Write a sequence for this structure.
């Protein structure tokens, strides 16, 4: 085999090793909490496999038929992910009862999680008040709490709460009806990524280095001839 094709083959192989084949389930193919739970620790990935999302647990009366939707919006320098839950039937119980959904997310690409916001869809009785829904986002050195009261956005009106970049985050959404009659219809978590996460793996750098050395030999040979 000639040096130039060999070098190109090594480059291609190196890039393939760096990127790695993806056989994970797309989150877009996971319609409910039940289907998400069935994936176990493997979880699902966003449309371009930049991140992995793993179901944790539900407590209280959250039905596993609750719909799960993950969408990704890409922009220069980062992505925005929205995790949405739609409760069917809606969450409604006696006063003081509550529920929770937990999950984790890991960045697979060159970006870290850097911000979060939270929103809920709530129906309350006339003159009613007291829907308290909270998103807890945890990670190394982080314990962020975003509270959506009466279906309000957190933080208001539509901004995001920034934090130091994290490769892994754990999220727990809690829902509590203070007076009876409050109905939770949906919940939305939004996360932004940005800051570079990690350097290329040593083995990938080595493969690229060998390829570049091969190209150099090709150029040298041409000059001598």
């Amino acid at each position: 085999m000639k040096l130039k094709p060999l070098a190109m083959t090594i480059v291609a192989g190196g890039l393939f090793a760096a990127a790695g084949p993806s056989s994970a389930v797309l989150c877009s193919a996971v319609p409910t909490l039940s289907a998400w739970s069935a994936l176990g620790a493997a979880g699902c990935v966003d449309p371009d496999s930049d991140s992995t999302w793993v179901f944790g647990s539900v407590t209280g009366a959250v039905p596993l038929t609750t719909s799960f939707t993950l969408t990704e919006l890409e922009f220069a320098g980062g992505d925005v992910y929205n995790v949405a839950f739609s409760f069917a039937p809606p969450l409604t119980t006696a006063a003081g009862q509550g529920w929770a959904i937990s999950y984790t997310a890991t960045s697979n690409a060159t970006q870290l999680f850097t911000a979060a916001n939270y929103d809920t869809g709530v129906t309350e009785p006339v003159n009613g008040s007291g829907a308290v829904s909270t998103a807890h986002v945890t990670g190394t050195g982080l314990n962020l709490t975003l509270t959506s009261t009466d279906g309000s956005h957190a933080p208001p009106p539509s901004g995001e709460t920034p934090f130091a970049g994290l490769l892994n985050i754990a999220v727990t959404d809690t829902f509590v009806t203070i007076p009876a009659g409050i109905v939770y219809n949906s919940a939305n978590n939004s996360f932004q990524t940005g800051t570079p996460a990690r350097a290329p793996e040593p083995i990938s750098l080595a493969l690229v280095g060998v390829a570049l050395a091969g190209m150099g030999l090709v150029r040298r040979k041409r000059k001598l001839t």
Q: What stands out?
A: Residues 11-194 form a domain with the Jelly Rolls fold (CATH 2.60.120). The first strand starts at residue 25 and ends at 26. The chain has one domain: 11-194.
